[in-house]
Amino acid sequence: MTLPPPSASAPAGHALALTGLTRRYGAFTAVQDVSLSVASGQFLTLLGPSGSGKTTILMMVAGFTEPSAGSILLDGRDITALPPERRDFGMVFQGYALFPHMTVAENVSFPLRVRGLARAARDAKVRAALDLVQLDRFADRKPAQLSGGQQQRVALARALVFDPALLLLDEPLSALDKKLRGELQEELKALHRRIGRTFINVTHDQEEALRLSDRVAILDHGRLVQQGSPLELYERPATRFVADFLGRSNFLAGTVREVRPGAMALLAGATRVVQAVPEGAPRLALGTPGLLALRPEKITLLAPGEAADTEVAGEIAAWSYHGTGFSLAVQTTDLGILHVALPAWRAAISPTEGMPVRLGWPADASVPVAEDSHAA
Amino acid sequence: MRRDLGWWALLLPAFLMMTVLYIAPIVQVLAISVTEPQLGLGNYDRLLTNAGVQRVILTTLRIGLLTTGIALLLGYALAYVIALARPAAQRWWLLGVLLPLWISVLVRAFAWVTLLRRQGLVNQGLQASGLIDAPLPLVWNEFGVVVGMVHYMVPYAVLPMLASMREIDSRLLAAARGLGASRGTVFGRVFLPLSLPGVVAAGVLVFIFSLGFYITPAILGGGKTLMAAEWIKLQILDLVRWGMGAMLATVLVAAILATLAVFSRVVDLRRLFGARA
User: Fold this and answer.
1) For residue A154, which residues of chain B lie inside 8 Å, CB to CB?
2) Which of A126, A156, A304, B155 has its C-alpha lying 20 to 30 A from A48's C-alpha?
């Protein structure tokens, strides 16, 4: 094996830190004051809709785009001014960017050739890298003779063959169909575990980000909105944008009417919404407007006589069936339409339009979120 | 079946016109090479025995290859700059390349004469700057012919090469740099190989054109550097040796077809002549 296992004497991965990274194009600011750090061996995903600046950040890390301000540190060393070919980062490009005039083996050996490695050493490393992605039988084919998934693996082998300090992935799975994407997500994750290197991935696919990453950084309009583990981001989104972009959320707007230790209550129309406030969390002042995000799967259908921290009545406006569950859109007077995800197996009701239902959820199901600030 | 016939009938007028007005006269002229002055391959015998014919053929090939080589080098550099320029700049560059095509060959040949002759701008400039004492022989020789022909051929070299450079995915170049290649290596290992089809296409186009050049060598060669086309004209119009002229014309047509046949295996000729964008 060319790639040392994670337990090898030297740390296999490298740590990267971005401080105050900014990129302007004329009057347009593509990336604004982004500070991030990736620990050695971590899998970080930059997640955001198109135009959020995630690719620009990756291109600055790779060295193809010069930052307008800020710096990039690799293991504490400033590499902001280094040209891409001297950074020693492996990169998998969107669409893979395999050289069409070279065979698979020549593609993979390209980074070794330009580093002046002797032929024998090159051949051994190329074979090991192709083994790693299970493509050893395709060494003599041209990229055009491979399927999309195979091309993606060649791009991976080529990016890893020279033991890069970091592996950068620019929407590596976006060109593949859904089923293949799922398979390659598993492979990518397993590969990351096996070689223990630092991966930085860019995607707009929130499901991919949740499945693959140790850490996710969510970007919107060039700013870093929130970062954390997938679980943290999903369970405790900080803003309306994060709650909406990562999975689905209902948003409940009201005015803070009661504040007690560990909880508060909002009033939306005549409905009292109870919200748990964990120790140390910022609390909203009495009388101020508040916004809560509530996941559809955390709402339950209340049986007659059953009680919950928050209860609201409504009627089913629309519903659909997905095999694993029902999706209901329930019209309420005070909270607007609430989306509810109900497990289908042994569901208490079979939904019909216009059916009156009572919904409820516990105080810790929802989270207070901030409105988005897109100004400036 | 009947419908097919109708379609073919539509083609008939054009086909007849081509046959009667174009192909038939050419075949007739080419036939003269084996009928004048008497029936037989006597004219073709001269290819092996006549030093004059051989010299003309060698001169034509030499000037053709030289022109092709220089036009490809200059054209490649131009196409490279254009391909990497921003879209707005690309339009101006292209205009600059195409503009000479709209100026008559005759005008351009005489313009070169005024520039290159003994009292021309180039010689005067060099003398005034003290680089040379006596004027250099820049025109009415092979040098002058090559200058004029290269000038004419560069746009034809640029266009196929630019087309093939534009097809190169810029991400490949970025990928190569990201994988550790310097700018020079990216050019040598990725850009150049991927642009080669355009280079071959441009080479075939320029070389074939160069073989049949008439006006430019006639004016800039000053009668001393004879190329095939001028020699054919000399044989037919001045010496009234139709057989000899037709013989070399036949050889020229055969040489061009042979070049096309060889390179059709390497490049897509339909694309070269614009049948496919």
Assistant:
1) none
2) A156
CA-to-CA distance for B248 and B246, rounded, in angstroms? 6
pTM for this one? Answer: 0.79
Is residue A257 within 8 A of residue A286, CB to CB? The reply is: yes
In CATH, B51-274 is 1.10.3720.10: yes
Per-residue pLDDT of chain A in tens (376 residues, 90 and over written 9): 444 444 444 445 789 999 999 999 999 999 999 999 999 999 999 999 998 999 999 999 999 999 999 999 999 999 999 999 999 999 999 889 999 999 999 999 999 999 999 999 999 999 999 998 888 899 999 999 999 889 999 999 999 999 898 999 999 888 788 888 888 898 899 989 988 899 999 999 999 999 999 999 999 999 999 999 999 999 999 999 999 999 899 999 999 999 988 899 999 988 999 999 887 777 788 889 999 999 999 999 999 889 999 999 999 999 999 888 999 999 999 999 999 999 988 888 888 999 999 999 999 999 999 988 754 3
Nearest to A85 among B182, B190, B194 (CB): B182
Residue of B169, B179, B190, B200 best to disrupt the A interface, most CBs of A under 10 A: B179
What does B118-151 look like in DSSP terms, one character per residue?
TTSHHHHHHHHTTS-SS----SSSHHHHHHHHHH
Structure tokens at A317: 């406006």
- CA atoms of A185 and A197, how far apart (whole Å): 16
Contact A239, A371 (CB under 8 A): yes
Provide the token pair at A99: 């050289």
Per-residue pLDDT tens digits for B39-55: 888 888 888 888 889 99
Q: Look up residue B161 and give its two tokens.
A: 């090469």
Nearest to B181 among A85, A87, A95 (CB): A85
Looking at chain A, which residue has its C-alpha nearest residue B179? A111
| Burial (CB count <10 Å: 0-12, 13-18, 19+), residue A77 | exposed
Does residue A250 contact residue A339 with C-beta atoms inside 8 Å?
yes
- Its ipTM equals 0.76
Q: Which residue of A has its CA nearest to B186?
A: A114
Question: Which amino acid appears at position A277 of this protein?
Answer: V
Run of H or E including B44: helix B42-49
Contact status of B192 with chain A (Cβ, < 8 Å)? no
Burial class (CB in 10 A: 0-12, 13-18, 19+), B39: exposed
Q: Please, which residues bridge with residue A31 across strands? A: A23
- Domains of chain B, residue spans: 1-35, 51-274
Q: What are phi and psi of B254, to 5 degrees?
A: -65, -40
User: What is the per-residue pLDDT for A5?
Assistant: 46
Residues A65, A73: Cα–Cα separation, whole Å: 15
Who contacts B179 (Cβ-Cβ below 8 Å, separation ≥6)? A85, A90, A91, A110, A111, A114, A158, A159, A162
**Cβ partners under 8 Å of residue B123, min gap 6:** B116, B117, B132, B135, B136, B138
